[in-house]
Every structure is written in structure tokens, then in C-alpha cells.
Amino acid sequence: MKKASVIALSVLMFLLVFSVGFSLTLVPLSQTFPQVPNAKYGGTLYLGTQAGPITQSMNPFTASTNSGFELATIYEPLFYVNSLNGDVTPLLGTSYKWSDNDLELTVTTRDNVKWSDGTPFTAQDVAFTFNYIKKYPALDTTGIWSSISNLQSVEASGTNVVVFKFSAPNVPLFSYIAGVPIVPEHIWSSIDNPVNYQDQNPVGTGPFIFESYSSALNSLTFVKNPNYWMEGRPFVDKVVAQSFIGGNVPNLLSMLKGQTQFSNMFIPDVQSAWIGKNPDTNKIYWPVVSVNALYFNTQKYPFNDVTFRKAVSLAIDKAALEQKAYFGTGGYDENQTGIIPSQQAAWLDPTLTSLASSVNSYNPQEAQKLLASIGFVKNSSGQLVGPDGNILPTYKILVGAGWTDFISMAEIVSSDLKQIGISTVVDQEAAATYMSSIMSGTYDLAISWGTGSGPTPYYYYYQEFSPAFSANKIGEMAASDWTRYTNPLITAALQVYAGTSDLALQKQAMYTIERIVLEDLPLVVLTNRTNFEDFYTKDFAGWPSMSNPYNAGENTNSQGGGIVLRNVYLK
Q1: How far apart are CA 448 and CA 463, in angstroms?
Q2: SS3 assignment, position 442
Q3: Three-state DSSP class for residue 432
């Protein structure tokens, strides 16, 4: 690594002790939920998803095993953090503050909130919830109490203050703390097997309460909570949430018939298949939240050579990938730092713009020159020969079986690499086998999603390059650092960011990582990756959009989807 990067990081470490401030923005409740003059109340909103068979189980801690609709309707977190821009919307929490050199996080909870059974909500419910998931680690799905989180204790102080104490600073954990669904102590304290608890009649603080379950329709029905704390919300009287069997096709057909108004699904050629069918009513909100990448197995030769990796990147036509796989819906502004477009203005080092552009370009001729500079040249048959005089073997590009977007990208990558003499084949594996191969490092090249995303680039870099998620040998499981690339300077910069709430220092830490990523290129960002919200707008208004991104385009059965349910109203 260049000496300048080392010096800059040393300065960051020195300045760390003087840090103050915040990196996320607490916005007024009215910004996310603005007043709607003369809004029309009533109506039934139909939601769709592809979660498979569901039951009358609404345990918010095991939502991934069922529908998850309770996260959008019944259970609320302290805050909603918009991963597009870092806006923090106050829900059960009204404010937060770091103190004691970022070893203490104090959250003020909302007054005059009641559980749906009429019991008052207090800060003690919050403290109970966090200590409950500590007691039952299987419920701690975001690692709040993991060995590397540094969280030491959570206690209530009075009726509306909760204090989180840390053994060492970990400012980014706030985003995970913010999203934990809060449950009522007076009910959950008597549940001694929460992992298997069905929670068939849930009690929450959210905008809706559970009404009925239909096994025939594979659906759950929720009705408006008449005692919801947010004045004027929700507008709709009822929500019917259905999980379609058979994937996207039946879900799309229901949308096209106007039977479902809000869904989440990737629709190939969405302009023709959905929007173009009726542009006045058929809308999408697909904001970029992450990236899709070509992962190198850096524990295998020649992918452990940075120049070889750069040559591969230059040989790939990324615009063709976006057009073929996503028909342009993700945009053509992907960046090799992995920073999504909505965060680039705030977080991308402006001195790296030129470097990022050159690394991202499509230039097969320059790729061939780079390869030649390290002894890789084509023979008379167009095959790439290594410095040892041997023809390179045929490498496999790992993708999930049937994943049409990844398969399309892999086919283009394979064709592009052939032009510079690298022979590859597309290796389709079933989802479970695919994940095993990519995590155990038995692959050559793989196409997959960015493993981390959040309101700042830290979350992407932390998941991609932290040694905590990596592995040292092929066969050992890597939780998310699938390239098995680590760098002590990146590790140190991650620690700087996590150890301060000072925005300036956090930015300098990210700038350090960005430069290293561009110089070492441990993976190739292929395309932007979006969320998928689809709307049928004939009868309802108030949807999010690129001009009004009040959520990050999350699924209907998520907390982000629940933000939409509070805003949508009858026309």
C-alpha cells in the first residue's frame, strides 16, 4: 500500500480520541410522514410477495421462516434507518445520543404509546426486548450481542430512557439496534421457548392489528389499529397480505389484474411486462441499494494477482451486463468502490473520481497490455499462456441455477474473457450448493450480490473485507468475505470508523478504504443492485418514488414496507 495511505491512517488513529458528532441524520417524523390535506380514509390494500406457504405464525424474531408481514404491520422498532441516504425516522424512539467517548448510547422513547391490548408502552419494554434476545441468541439475527459487537448492557432509566453501554465503541451498531422489533414484556416474559413460539395473536404498537388467517388463500388480514400513536395514520382500514405460490408469475398476474396494489418482485423487461401495459397505473420504485459483483477467489492463482484482476475488470463490458440482465433499470453508474449512487456525493473521495472511472472502463486492449506486463500472452490459438509457459485452464463462473439475471451476466463475462484468451464456463449450482461453494472458497469466479449494505459505505466494506467474516484456507467457511481478501489497513480503517461518531473522521476512514479497493480490486462491481417495489396506483396514492424516497424500496413484508403502509391513502 502507498506510503500516503499509511500516513493518512496513522493520523486518523491519532485524531480518534477527539471525536464528537454524528454520521446519520435524525429527521422529523413529518419528513417521512408528511401531512396530506384532505386525504381520503378507508379502503383495503392488497399486498403480494413470494414467500411460499405461510401459517398463522407472526413471531417477529423468526420472520424469515414465515411471511414476515408482522414486521410491516404490528411490531415497530425504535427507528427506521433509510439505507439510501442515512435518514433516521423516529418511531418508538424519539431521539438518541452518543456520550462517554461513544461508549454509551442513550435513546429516549416515545410517550403516550399503548400496546394493542391497551397496556402502556415504556422504556422497560425496550430494555426487556434487547436482554431477551441476549438470553435467547437464536433470536439475535443481526448480531446485536455477538462477540464482536462490544455491547455490554441495556437498561431502562425511568419510563422513557434506555441506556446502551459498550465495552468499546461500535457506533455502526446503532443501525442494527434501531431496527430490532420491540415486544411487550408483559407477554413475552412468560414465553420460555421463543424460537418455536407461533405468536398467533400478536400484540404490538404498530399501525395494524391481526384479524384473520386464510390457509386457502395463503394470506393474513390486518385491520387498522384505532389507538395507533401516530396521529392521522394509517389511512387505510385493512391490509390483506398474500404469499403467492409459484414465484413471480402468479404475483405479476394478480398485479396486472389490479387485484394486488403493492408487491415486491424483479420483473424481467419491466417496461414491457409491467409499466407498458398501463403506464398510468403500473409503477415501480427500484432504488439502488447494493451491487452485484464478480468475486475472485484470491486464494487461487492467478486471481491472487492484482494486475490479473484489473485486466479481468477492464475486459468486461459492464454496460452490456446491465442492459442484458436488468434492461437498464439499475442504471449505468456503478462504481468499483462499491458505493451506491445515492451515497457517492457524501462518501466518495472526490480525488478518486478519475481512478474509479479508469478502473471501471471497458478496455480489452488495455487488459491485454496489463496481462502481458506480468507475463500472460496469447498463443497462436488465442489461448492465454502464463509466465510458466502453460496454457491457463478453463475456469468456472459460479452462479445459482435458474437465476436468469446472474446467468445472463455470466454468459457475457465468459464471452468477454474469451476475447483476452481466458477460457471459462458457466457453472450453475442449486441455491444451497451455490452458497456452500462460495462460502467454502471452492469456486474460481462467482457472481453474487454485495454482502453488506446500509446507510453508509461502512456496512458494505465491513461485510466484504473484515477478517471477522473471512477464512484463511480453502474449505473453511467465510461468512461474507467471499474473496478471502483482507488488508490490515482496511481493518484499521474499519476500526476507526466504528470507534467514532465524528463524521469527518468516518469519511476519512472510508476514503482510505476506497483507495485501497480501487488499487487492489479484490472484486469487480458488475452492476448496481436494486430493491423491487411494484405498485398498482389506480385506487391509492402516497407511494415512494425516486423523487420522494421516503423508504429504500424494501419488501412488502419488512419494516421498510411498513413505512409505505402508513403513507398510502385512497384517491
Answers
A1: 14
A2: coil
A3: helix
Give the three cell numbers for residue 85.
441516504
* Beta carbons within 8 Å of 319's beta carbon, 6+ residues apart: 332, 362
Residue 66: the pLDDT is 81
User: Of 144, 218, 203, 117, whose CA–CA distance to 557 is shortest?
Assistant: 218
CB-based contacts of 248-253 (< 8 A; 24+ apart in sequence): 248/50, 251/48, 251/49, 251/50
Average pLDDT of the chain, as a whole number:
94
- For the chain, the straight-line distance linking the first and the last C-alpha, in angstroms and rounded, comes to 58
Confidence band, pLDDT 50/70/90 cuts, at residue 247: confident
Distances (CA, A) of 172 to 80, 267, 532: 14, 33, 26
295-530 CATH fold:
Dipeptide-binding Protein; domain 3 (3.10.105)
CA distance 515 to 234: 46
The number of beta carbons lying within 10 Å of the beta carbon of residue 176 is 20
Cα gap 237→311, rounded to integer Å: 57
Residue pair 155/184 in contact (Cβ under 8 Å)? The answer is: no
Strands ordered across the beta sheet of 161-166:
93-99, 104-109, 161-166, 151-156
CA-to-CA distance for 330 and 288, rounded, in angstroms?
6
Amino acid found at 298: T
Q: Which pTM value belongs to this model? A: 0.92
Nearest residue to 525 (alpha-carbon basis) of 438, 464, 440, 444: 464
SS (H, E, C) 254-284: HHHCCCCCEECCCCCCHHHHCHHHCCCCEEE
